[in-house]
Structures are given as structure tokens and as C-alpha cells.
Amino acid sequence: MTDAGFEAFLDAADRDGALAETRARAETASRRRLLGMAAAGAGALALTRASGARAARLAASDVDILNYALVLEYLQATFYTEAERSGALTGKTAQAARVVGATERAHVKAFLQLLGSQAVKRPTFNFEGTTEQQRPFLKTAVALEDLAVAAYKGQAPKLRSNAVLAAAVGIHSVEARHAAWMRQLFGITPAVNAFDKPASRKSVGRLVASTHFISATPRMKRRNKPGFTG
Amino acid sequence: MRRAVPDIEVHERKLGASSLSRRALLGAGAAGAVVTVPVVGRLLRLGDALSAPSKAQDVKILQLVLQVEYTQVAFYEEALAQAQLSGDVREFAQRALGHERQHLAAVKKALGSKAGAKPRFAFGDKTKNARAFMRAAIQLEDIAVAGYNGQAANLTKGTLAVAAEIVSVEARHAAWVRALAGEVAAPEPVDHPMTAQQAAAGLRALGVRS
């Protein structure tokens, strides 16, 4: 699917208008940054439009979960992009890495659009050679995809916005497809158990930390921290 | 290997303190909603009419899920008996059947006495040779994924947590059989949901007759 298709999906899923509103605010913010004070008029217009619609804002907890998902998507997207660029992959594995990489990049882009100025920055990654050889690549891809499935599953019931939930479950099952695909290419059973287990944020964090793939921690820009957490 | 219902218990224990899964799933069945004989056609009432999540609504949605799981079990059973599957494709069908039986048992247990009857099936050529089987399996698993995803916002959070453990396994099956069929295993960046009506229509097109 193209980015436009993804956008259309998010729009279709956006029954309560929260996503559009968040995006409108993000666009307003970036326009302001770009054009400075001169853009005040356009910014005001966008805000008016957004609040004219039922201005349901994303809950702080949803923003937090989306940022957590964004870090996992950054991790995956960077991993596949780097593997693709290394030129080490061949045959079906190279094809899968291209398709999956494009998808993970689309996920990153969608979350960035949703979160706008509230998005965490891309961390610095170091995949320690796993992107430069086919077997280590596949083994790592299996781990990252299984982790993403478990991570989304752990957060889905906590989401408050139905629009964000619709997007999250649609991504969750795609990550499961990726996991099965990478497992098949690696030569292990694509679907081991009848029930896939969720993973808590804590255990996902521990696992990611144990890989040392993230070499610099993302931080929210101070000025974008919420004024209060009421 | 087959532990019909205890699976959820084992699973829950592994989750530690969480009491979400089994209680939620069983709680849905215990809710006092009156559910009529759940044939696929009746499921057409689901969808637009849905309101805020409730245990009673979970029961209605679980009836759709039950139909999906009945269909998958019947489909894989018939294909294993009639499609002369061999090698990797046979292994896939056996694994998938094992999973679907466990899903079916869990959903049946959740619904208890409210569980609808098994529909009749007419899969035709779809279970008669490996190529046709793989094509139909892709469709069936995709319907399961889209059907579950389409109900996510309609379920109570506890039942959603359990459904999420099933839907990703259906997605794995879909990718697995696509890879075996020589197709791109995950062709879309996001899975589009189906309404209950669309899922029911998809099941009918595959041969569910109720």
C-alpha cells in the first residue's frame, strides 16, 4: 500500500476525529515553526477547523503508547534499511527485507504524522553487524518481529482512542505476518503456539536493552512536555 | 500437545498476576445476554448497531468468532483428509488445525451454553487439491484477521486482550501459507478491518452454509 493508502486507512479508522485533530495540530505546529510569526493566520485557520470538528484530543497515555510504538518502529525500520543497504541479503530474504522495510518505514511515517511535535526523536542505533550477514539478519528479524507483536498486544487494551486502537490492531497483525515470514525464511515454525503472548513494556524494554541496538536514548524535547498531567 | 481448554490457564499462569484472559473470556459467557441461534446470517445484525463495549456485546461478537473458528477447523480437517497434502503444506495444515481447535475450544468455553451450533459446510474444490487449498486458506485466514481486527473497539478490554492473542496467530497462518504458495507473505503495511457483515459474507463465499 502506498502512503496515500495508509493515510486513507487512518482516515477511515478515525471515527472520533482524534487522529485528524492531532494531525491538524501537528501541521499547525510545523507550519508555525517553518514560517514563524507570518504563519499565524494559517495556523489559526487550521486550529479553527480542527476545533470546529468534535475536537477529541488524544489522551496523554495514548501519546505515550504511540511514542513507545514509534521507538519500536524506528528500530525495525532502521534495521531493515541498513540490511538492505549492506547488500548482504540475497534471494527471497532480500525480497522480504525490501517489502518489510518499506512497511516499517510507512509505520514510522504514520506515527510521526499522528504525533507531530509530540513524537520522540529517532534514537541512534548500532546493530552490531547483524545487518551484514544473512543468517544473523534473519535471526534478529525474527526476534524483532516477535517482540513487536508481543509489544503491540500488550498495549492494545490500554489504548483509549478507538481510532488509535484501530490503527494499532491493523499494524499488530501485520507485524505477526512479518514474524511468520522471517521465521519461515530462517527455517523455523512460523506459528508455534495457538495463543501469542503479550509482553509488558518493562519486559520489552529489558529485551531491547539487552541487544544494545539502541546506542542513544530518545528524549522528548523539553518544550513539548505537557504542562500538566492531570 | 493438545490441551483443549487448559491452554488458557497455562497461558494465564505464564502471564503472572494478570487475570485478564480466562476470567474475561469466561465472564463474557456468563453475562446474561439472550443470544439466539447464531447462524451466520444472524450475525448480519452485528456491526453498525454495536454500541459501547459490554459483556453482553462480547457474547454477540464471540458468536461471530465462533463461526470463524468452526469454519477453520472444518476446513483444515477436510483438506487434510481430501487434498492429498504433503511436505511443508501438510505440516502447515496440521499445525494450523491444532491451533484452530484450541481457539474453538476456548471460544466455546467462553460462551458456555450460549455457544451456537456448528454450521454446515460446502467447501467444494477448495479442499480437493493443494493449490486450491492454499488459495482458500489465505482467504480464510485473512478473513479471520480482518474479522477480529474489525471488532477490536467493540470488545471489552479483557476480551480484546484474549482476542489479540488469537488474531496474531491467524495472521501468522496467513503469512505462512502465502509463503508456501510463493506469494509475498505480508503484502500490506496495515491490515484493513472487516465489519461483521463483511466477515460473514466472506465465510459464506468460502462455503459456510447455515
Protein model, in words:
The complex is a heterodimer of chains A (230) and B (210). Chain A contains 8 helices and 2 strands; from the N terminus they run αααααβαααβ. Chain A has 230 residues and is mainly α. Chain A has a single domain (4-25, 41-211), classed as Ferritin (Up-down Bundle), CATH 1.20.1260. Chain A has a two-stranded antiparallel ribbon. The longest helix of chain A has 27 residues, at 60-86. Chain B has 7 helices and 2 strands. Chain B has a two-stranded antiparallel sheet with strand order 1-2. The relative contact order of chain B is 0.18. Chain B is mainly α and 210 residues long. The longest helix of chain B has 28 residues, at 55-82. The interface between A and B is large, with 45 and 47 residues.
List the helices and strands and how they pair.
The complex is a heterodimer of chains A (230) and B (210).
Chain A: H1 3-13, H2 18-35, H3 40-52, H4 60-86, H5 91-115, E1 124-125, H6 134-155, H7 162-186, H8 201-211, E2 214-216
Antiparallel strand pairs in A: 1-2
Helix pairs in contact in A: 2-3, 4-5, 4-6, 5-7, 6-7
Chain B: H1 6-15, H2 20-30, H3 55-82, H4 87-111, E1 120-121, H5 130-151, H6 157-180, H7 196-206, E2 208-209
Antiparallel strand pairs in B: 1-2
Helix pairs in contact in B: 2-3, 2-4, 2-6, 3-4, 3-5, 4-6, 5-6, 5-7
- The total count of strands of chain B amounts to 2
Largest sheet of chain A: 2 strands, antiparallel
Shape of chain A: globular
Number of helices of chain B: 7
- Strand content of chain A is under 5%
